């Protein structure tokens, strides 16, 4: 209805009319048979990607004026209310000092990477900008772009983001530049990933009737025959058995991660994170449950950590001035099988790995957990993975910061769980995923509603700021 009115109001010579008409008439969705539309709505049919037929939308290069406004999410001294103490979550300058990147975050709140299954051929889409932009507007300290395949076959699903070819660079550069434009001072990173034995699977919302363990076949746009892992061990019963990579192919995989980092830095990302968690390739090297190799990449702790450490070392020496992060699973959550004589990746091994990563100049160790085996035992509750981050902090990293993730938001008071963890010294950074999607203004709410500390917002959103919304709220002078 709104679009219809706009089209009607536009004068015949206006540039607006052709744009709106094209949008209405050339949209792939509008030209679809109606039975397809309802199929797609219920997740049964192939999605229709706008990139196939560009909508011809052109966004202007408007840069919001921020004169007199500190960066969104920052808490400069003069906006801390009198009598309030600044929470640690809002330390004004969180320096990452393990690398020579000079990178500093404007607070300790980080958007955890979240796959959106919304890319075609690995390219970021308008969805990614909207999704990530929601947090850029609301002042997070940093945003990490979701797991992005360093090879096409290393994607979890055919709709996952990628960074395996040079053609991806421009699209990522546009994404980073748009996010920084709307949120000056924002740090943006990307997670580099290879899905290993969990590749070529269905995304949760393209799956339809299929089960999680049903692979996307070649005919369906997957790469069933190219699912690879450190060892030919299936994730679980009924899952495909991956092909074990040769020693040479393990070395080549390291090169793919380096090329991914090359492209990410060319696109302007502030940091890259190596995804060595959640059962994907690098994690499945670490764990003795999934790594049964007998060459230099298997067996001992040194062998199982070799690919990760070699990759870290290579990226660090090639990019001494860039920030490098690593996500690990602090445990496989499978300690219960150790009693049966099965070794697992656990908190002790994570604590052994941490000083090595610290010594290699990793800026942040982002400590998640689980995802390697279907028989993991997890009891989700607020801060349920924090003990593994706290374990790493006990190793007293010299320069590396430690991130905690996993329900780090409270039910009633959004920032309290995070702030308590920081105050205790259990971690240095807080990563949030589901809580952030549920409340894109989480950062502002944590600052203002919980701790009575104002944090700067986006000037365009000033009417929403709790500190500027005194009752009565009904005034409307716009
Ligand atoms: C929709 C969704 C997508 C996710 N995708 C990724 C991903 O790309 N990489 C990753 O390391 N973790 C991913 N995760 C895990 C989150 O980053 C996070 O570790 C987990 O959800 C626990 O944090 P939370 O309790 O704040 O949600 C994803 C989680 C969700 C909910």
UniProtKB/TrEMBL annotation:
The keyword DNA damage does not apply. The keyword Flavoprotein applies. Residues 104-450 form the NADH:flavin oxidoreductase/NADH oxidase N-terminal domain. Residues 458-478 are annotated as: Disordered. SUPFAM superfamilies: FMN-linked oxidoreductases. GO terms for molecular function: FMN binding; NADP binding; NADPH dehydrogenase activity. This is FMN-linked oxidoreductase.
